[in-house]
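Lecture notes, part 5. Sequence design as translation. It can be helpful to think of inverse folding as translation between two languages: the language of shapes and the language of residues. The source text, in structure tokens, appears below.
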């Protein structure tokens, strides 16, 4: 497998799959969090400083039924160019070129000079990127035929993108679990020595492989969020690897109810009660220390200004709902986390977007940072977990913050990611 560290881009055009699906301020349209842009910079800088040219491609959001030639300003990558230039000017690229039509950018790519950067329009303007037919329902008898035709179109689209450059670099870990034209299919158009991962993906893989290879002793997984069903595969995989498993967030209430607890109006997956009991039994059989919350901060409604009341987790009053863990749970979790040697954290402990119910998640973030300061290796993934780390200015106090929530989960579950397999040859 070709390594970017060893490759010289001098005199070569490289097409780079980046993840510039960045959040925008609804009022100003400005990029509100440029973490993903900054994550791609080392790869872009390497190409330019070697003496090559970079053609960047990405998606943004989920535009529906967009005419590629007309586009949709809300999802146009043109609006983030200044946010990218803010950093690229530091290595000599003050102005980035833009191609309004990613599928018809051959001339723009041809005209691109060494030391320049070209950004292609949002790839998801094109149905061919995802390879799914639009305007036809799955129930339609003609759907299978349309899907087959779209797969052929996807290959042609990938071939077109590939024709713009001599080298392919995938540095978008957040989309590596999707078999899209730009993340997987395109790789078939390049020889093994002309396709590679960027620095960001290499860092992601190193971080995750390191965690998966960690000793069981002192290994703690922290799983939060709303649904057991979203995390069942990673929980199952981690039961063979961890010493401690902490479960919080809305998903904890499925476990509480499964054991006969009163949960009021708290979130619960009624069809997953048996699954919760099965996880508890498996954890016990494997000698895993499974920690569930023992108390909760309840609300009388789902609102940032709701009235609150602390109770035991299994004594939620009728008409109330648990929206955060409370002091005893925080203390229990902190003790385990701060004595850990390896940590993986995915998902909040409560309704983190409401300040009144953010204390549990914030406490976990600080505990993970404290453990890291004592020598633990900590891997953070998932939007709210990352947000908690960033909100508390702790990004440089943990070992690694993953850019890919869904991709990270699937990789940690042991699944083969199409975007990784296309270059590394995973089976």
């Amino acid at each position: 497998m070709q390594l970017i560290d060893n490759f010289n881009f001098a005199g070569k055009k490289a097409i780079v799959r980046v993840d510039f699906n960045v959040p925008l301020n609804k009022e100003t349209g400005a990029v509100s969090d440029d973490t993903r842009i900054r994550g791609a910079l080392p790869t872009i800088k390497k190409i330019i400083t070697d003496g090559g040219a970079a053609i960047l491609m990405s998606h943004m959001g989920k535009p529906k039924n967009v005419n590629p030639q007309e586009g949709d300003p809300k999802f146009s990558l043109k609006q983030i160019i200044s946010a990218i230039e803010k950093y690229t000017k530091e290595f000599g690229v003050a102005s980035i070129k833009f191609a309004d039509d990613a599928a018809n950018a051959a001339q723009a790519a041809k005209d691109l000079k060494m030391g320049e950067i070209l950004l292609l329009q949002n790839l998801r303007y094109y149905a061919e990127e995802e390879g799914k037919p639009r305007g036809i329902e799955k129930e339609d008898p003609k759907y299978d035929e349309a899907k087959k035709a779209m797969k052929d179109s996807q290959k042609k689209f990938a071939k077109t993108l590939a024709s713009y450059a001599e080298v392919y670099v995938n540095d978008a870990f957040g989309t590596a679990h999707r078999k899209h034209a730009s993340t997987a299919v395109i790789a078939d158009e390049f020889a093994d020595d002309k396709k590679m991962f960027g620095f960001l993906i290499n860092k992601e893989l190193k971080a995750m492989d390191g965690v998966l290879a960690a000793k069981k002793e002192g290994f703690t997984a922290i799983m939060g969020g709303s649904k057991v069903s979203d995390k069942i595969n990673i929980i199952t995989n981690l039961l063979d690897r961890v010493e401690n498993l902490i479960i919080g967030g809305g998903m904890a209430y499925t476990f509480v109810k499964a054991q006969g607890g009163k949960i009021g109006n708290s979130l619960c997956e009624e069809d997953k009660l048996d699954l919760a009991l099965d996880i508890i039994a498996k954890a016990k059989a494997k000698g895993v220390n499974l920690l569930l919350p023992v108390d909760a901060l309840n609300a009388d409604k789902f609102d940032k200004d709701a009235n609150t009341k602390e109770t035991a987790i299994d004594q939620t009053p009728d008409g109330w709902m648990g929206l955060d863990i409370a002091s005893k749970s925080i203390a229990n979790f902190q003790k385990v986390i701060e004595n850990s040697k390896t940590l993986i954290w995915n998902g909040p402990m409560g309704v983190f977007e409401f300040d009144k119910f953010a204390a549990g998640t914030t406490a976990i973030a600080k505990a993970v940072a404290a453990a890291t300061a004592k020598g633990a290796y900590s891997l953070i993934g998932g939007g709210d977990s990352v947000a908690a780390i960033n909100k508390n200015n702790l990004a440089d106090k943990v070992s690694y913050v993953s850019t890919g929530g869904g991709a990270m989960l699937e990789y940690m579950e042991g699944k083969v990611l199409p975007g990784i397999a296309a270059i590394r040859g995973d089976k």
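The translated text above is only one of many valid answers, since several sequences can fold into similar shapes. The domain at 207-412 is CATH 3.40.50.1260 (Rossmann fold).
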